[in-house]
Amino acid sequence: MASVRDVAVVGGGIVGLSVALNLVERFGVSVVVLETEKDLAQHQTGHNSGVIHSGLYYRPGSYRARNCTKGRELMYRFCEEHGITHERCGKVVVATDPRELPNLDELERKGQANGLAGMRRIGPEEIKEREPHIAGIAGLWIPETGIVDYKQVSRKYAELARDLGAEIRVDAQVTKVTRDAGELVLETKAGPFRAKHLVNCGGLQSDRVARMCGVDPGVQIVPFRGEYYEIVPERRHLVKGLIYPVPDPAFPFLGVHFTKTVHGDREAGPNAVLALCREGYSWSKISLRDIGQMMRYRGFWAMARKHWKTGFGEMYRSLSKRAFHKALARLMPELRMEDIRPFGAGVRAQALDREGKLVDDFRFVEADRMIHVLNAPSPAATASIAIGRTIADMAGRNFTLPTRHPAGSLIA
User: Domain boundaries in the chain?
Assistant: First the structure.
């Protein structure tokens, strides 16, 4: 068995890598990152649309709001300092129906409370100036929003962490956690690892990792698949930047929207359909274990009673290209069925509490020698540097970490 590390980080997505980098940079401690897959950033990090979120949508004062608004500017600075392709392109949020105007007003209030200094209300004329093919009666212009490739960001986090001495192991799924002589023993497919402390950034498996550690997470992860279409190359001119609808405040998803990527693609989506496997990127990927665990969880049935109509609508849109196109055409009436084609999917690790409430904030749970990140959906990638700092602050207060020779700041 190898030497004892100060901290083991479970999960090699963008949040886990940021946590590892923050820990080695600030405290100079020994850190090992244990990732299940054969490469890093293979799940939520590697399957999103690459938006650098502004902080518009989140409840003022929440972890999401505070970490997003700080993390957004840290992300831009990090990309500039390390030569990562990105663009502060801005976005429009568009109301297409008078019934959406009260929710647009509420979004504007949230944006103001969260410090979006550049945000302003725009009318149909300016909507057309910015996005000539969009139909809208009112909107918000959000210049703080941007785009980046989060896999590139994750690779840079990993490179910097390794340079400071962190060990990053892939194909190292954690299967068991026990305590021995005041240390944690993590059994993995790559062999056992000993650590004095643990940070769980397991994403889709984070609740299971917590239970493995003897901690009641108080929530269960329910996977929601977001499916994307792309606009065919010859029709990409229909979308200049980022175009979002006014979201339904009763549901923690933003609705189908149009996104320009740093690679030049134009994505349309996603929907939000219940996945039948925690890594269920298609209908054909089914896990009886995951389904059974959902069915046995009382919070799942409470959620189903509340959101069954929306859920069936999302399922129909998943199975019907015509229905998906219809949702997109509300924003862009001239979009044709033949203008879009399937473009992949991502799975969101959504925490659900026992009362059936979809947790709408980041959730961090502290335990003896441990910190568990149990809900970190969007904007976690945008906020990853800020989240890493938040977790490092918690570790500094609650872990016994020797300060060896901390490095100067490498992360913005």
Answer: 1-88+146-218+361-412, 89-145+220-353
What class does CATH assign to 1-88+146-218+361-412?
alpha beta
Span 342-380, pLDDT tens digits: 999 999 999 999 999 999 999 999 999 999 999 999 999
pTM: 0.94
- Quick one: three-class SS letters along the chain? CCCCEEEEEECCCHHHHHHHHHHHHHHCCCEEEECCCCCCCCCCHHHCCCEECCCCCCCCCCHHHHHHHHHHHHHHHHHHHHCCCEECCCEEEEECCHHHHHHHHHHHHHHHHCCCCCCEEECHHHHHHHCCCCCCCEEEEECCCEEECHHHHHHHHHHHHHHCCCEEECCCCEEEEEEECCEEEEEECCEEEEEEEEEECCHHHHHHHHHHCCCCCCEEEEEEEEEEEEECHHHHHHCCCEEEECCCCCCCCCCCEEEECCCCCEEEECCCEECCCCCCCCCCCCCHHHHHHHHCCHHHHHHHHHHHHHHHHHHHHHHCHHHHHHHHHCCCCCCCHHHEEEEEEEEEEEEEECCCCECCCCEEEEECCEEEEEECCCCCCCCHHHHHHHHHHHHHHHCCCCCCCCCCCCCC
Q: How confident is the model at residue 247 (pLDDT cuts 50, 70, 90)?
A: confident
Q: What is the pLDDT of residues 183-210, one digit of tens each?
A: 999 999 999 999 999 999 999 999 999 9
Give the CATH fold of the 89-145+220-353 domain: D-Amino Acid Oxidase; Chain A, domain 2 (3.30.9)
